Amino acid sequence: MANDIGRAMARLKHRDIRTRRRAVRTLFEHDDPNVLEAFKPLLDDEDGWFVSKALDAYRQWAAHAGPGAVVTLLEHRSLEVRRAGANLLPSLGESAKAPALSALEDDDGVVQKKAARALLVFDGEEIAKRLSEHPNDAVRLLGMKHPSVSHAHLKVALNDRSDGVRSAALESVLQHGIEVEIESLIPFLQANLQTVKILAWVGQHA
């Protein structure tokens, strides 16, 4: 079997496209995570079929290969590849923290949002701060749901430019009974948002 895998890996560089495709199929049949590195050059292939198969290989084996495999995708120039890498962050478990924090700085909003979602499972005020102060509205919204989000950030977010962020901040304030200025809740009452819960909050904090 080892010889078959070795030959297939070598044939990924063959000039004949049919030989290369057979090599790809052979590697998938053996289902060995150790062959993942051989698929890395295919991420840059001009033929979309090989790029697609390379991404399939990363989806199948990246969790076994470790965070470096996902980082390879996250640092790629192709947006499709980076988004695929962001999708794999949760599969890394505790090892996802560092690459997810780096992915927050990606130029693509989808990658940023997926990275933010992966970070919600990690405690820590610094992570909550990064999410809550991010320029992407979708990331800030997720930041309002982080278990370590500060009361100060929630209070500021009640006046955020994004409706979604404001609503998420309000939900956290009401859920945890956080003290805020009553004036900051008036716009929500005027918009008939969470009216019953706000009035209950007022009754508890009057």
For the largest beta-sheet, the strand count, sense and barrel status come to: none
Structure annotation, total helices: 14
- Overall geometry: elongated
Evaluate the radius of gyration: 23 Å
As a percent range, the share of strand residues is under 5%
Q: Structural class of the helix and strand makeup?
A: mainly alpha
Span of the ends, CA to CA: 74 Å
Outline the secondary-structure elements.
Blueprint: H1 2-11, H2 17-30, H3 36-39, H4 48-65, H5 67-74, H6 79-87, H7 97-103, H8 109-119, H9 125-132, H10 137-143, H11 151-157, H12 163-176, H13 186-190, H14 195-205
Helix pairs in contact: 1-2, 4-5, 5-6, 6-8, 7-8, 8-10, 9-10, 10-12, 11-12
List its salient traits.
206 residues; mainly alpha; 14 helices; elongated
Brief summary:
This protein is mostly helical.
Describe the structure.
The chain is mainly alpha-helical and 206 residues long. It has a domain at 135-206. The chain has 14 helices and no strands. The chain has helices at 2-11, 17-30, 36-39, 48-65, 67-74, 79-87, 97-103, 109-119, 125-132, 137-143, 151-157, 163-176, 186-190, 195-205. Helix 11 crosses helix 12 (163-176). The longest helix is centred in the first third of the chain and has 18 residues, at 48-65. The termini are far apart. The model has no long low-confidence stretch (mean pLDDT 94).
